[in-house]
Amino acid sequence: MNSNTKTHNSQYEARELLPIGLIVAIGAIFCRLPALGAWWNLDDWDLLARAANVIFSDGPSPRVFSQIVFWEVFHPIFGDNAQGWAFVRLLIFGGISWTTVRICKHLGMEKLPRLFAGLLVAASPLAFTPLYWASGVQTLLGALFALRAIDFALQNRIWPVLLLGVLSILSKENAILLPLILPFVFINRTWKHWLVIALLGALAIFESWLVLITFNHTPGMPYALGDIQSVFTHLAGYGWWMLSPGIPYTIKLGLVELIAGLSLWLLWGIYSFRTWRNDDSVPAILLISSLASIAPALALKTHHYPYMAFLAAIPFYILVAQLAVSRFSFSIKKSVIMSVMILLIGFGLMEARITLRTSDGLAADPVVFKTSISYAAVSKIRTFQNNPVVILQPSVSIDKENAGLLRPTPIYNAIGGQTLVSLLALEGIDLSWKTGLTRSIPKDAIILVDAGPILKFWGQMPQPLIYLALSDIALGKFTEARFALREAMISSDTTMPFMYDESQLILPPSEIEKNCEAFLRFLELDSDINGENEAITETAVDLFDRCGFTREKND
Question: 3-class DSSP state for residue 130?
């Protein structure tokens, strides 16, 4: 083949791929536009902090490209502008959908099946989390580079496969078994092809070792290793999620879902065997690719989520497209109708998952829930940027053993815990976490309390001490309540200011009310070394009256 022929073929291929590729890529971005409303939560804060040089890695990262390099490249451009980062994820996702079309072309599929496969990827419910959660870029980058490597392997272009394979393996563990897929994909296998496979295999082995020593695999931890039963259960789960529309969001699957998921793999295997015997190896290669991409996740005991099947679903979508529309002729009208319908469904499912709420009004999707409470909490903190801000984690139980330790509550995890303290320091905001109210807290500090999914406003001293006393009374922790009231009185002038707002309590008012009389009896019987109990009793009685609590004796 001479150079003129190559140029002609490249131009022909571009004309063949460009219209469908553009439709799919633009459509993928369009139907995921609601992702632009995403914000930071969970691991995002650590990745931002590392990119901003606020915190530093304490060891090697298995996902060095997607967790470090990517963030260091874009952080100078976007900073903490969540919409800018979300748009980059949309572009990556458009590239994934485009690459799917290219792979279909190189597999010999006609135009309409190519279009259908790309649209299925664009509308896939499994792409929701990687797009809406900033840390999900790891999944997107791993998928994009792995698919591009397969694309170039189908063209028998060796060195791009090596580069993209390296980037894929360094982005996400899904690509660790990529070297096992390449021998089935390369058209001709010379020593150069085997060299690329060997180099990627060596990197995959090193990456596997790095994963084993970096992630905590001890029992009870997210990355704890499972057994053969969990492997089949997870395989069934991923199979079901590849079939499911994603609404409602389900993690715990029943027997029907698990059987359906296993049936998918079984039927795919039977079909692949039959077509392979008829000299059509494509379904078998697609099956091997799908299984290889989720194999690393199958070893985990409990850490399995729908988005982890995103890359595995793409070979499935290609097979579905080939089987569903391969016998239909290509026409502009048919293509437009199918494209619009699928993209509108994808947009609708995306928007529905964001807006879906539970009976208590909170977001039903876990990622949307964490994102929403993270945004609300940090927005509230930033409104007090002229004052020191203290987030209080008061004990909400009688457990004294862990009373002085910060707990990984939903708010604490969603806003990055101590990492947020370091990031907000760059903005000049003085934030700290406390488990108790001490005299070392500045008088002008604003106290916000960690209360379930929100931060409640307790204001400035001595008001937070009074709220804390009421909480301790509700829990029957009368010694602590007495101390809090005493501290509130000491920090006050002639009068003790307090604006009672029932909505800012962290325990139901009824729990406080039923213990009011018992607390007063405690003060009456408690040894009064400094002669303070009479004053504290008067303060407590006045406080209960102001709050409208009825003091009825409990026998």
Answer: helix
- Residues 505 and 512 sit within 8 Å (Cβ to Cβ): yes
DSSP annotation of 370 reads H
Give 37-84 pLDDT, tens digit per residue: 999 999 999 999 999 999 887 767 889 999 999 999 999 999 999 999
Q: In what order do the strands lie in the sheet with 389-392?
A: 431-434, 389-392, 446-451, 454-459
The alpha carbon of 233 is separated from its chain's Cα centroid by a whole number of angstroms, namely 22
In whole angstroms, give the CA distance from residue 470 to residue 539. 12
- What are the two backbone dihedrals, phi and then psi, of residue 436, each rounded to the nearest 5 degrees? -155, 165
How many helices and strands, by DSSP H and E, does the chain display? 24, 4
- Cα separation, 515 vs 419, in Å, equals 38
pLDDT of residue 163: 97
CA distances from 71 to 302, 370, 447 (A): 28, 21, 33
Element (H, E) at 88: helix 82-106
- CA–CA distances in Å: residue 423 to residues 23, 115, 412, 419, 455: 40, 44, 14, 6, 19
Return the bridge partners of 432, or none. Answer: 390
pTM score of the predicted model: 0.89
Q: Where are the alpha helices (DSSP H) in 356-462?
A: 366-382, 410-414, 418-425
Helix (H) or strand (E) holding 456: strand 454-459
CA 516 to chain centroid: 43
Which pLDDT belongs to residue 3?
Answer: 35
Residue 260's CB: how many other CB atoms inside 10 A? 16
Looking at this protein, which amino acid is placed at residue 271?
Y
204, 197 in Cβ contact below 8 A? no
pLDDT < 50 stretches in the chain: 1-8, 398, 554-555
Q: Is 449 helix (H, G, I), strand (E, B) or coil?
A: strand
- What pLDDT score was predicted for residue 13? 60
CB-CB neighbours of 137 under 10 Å: 27
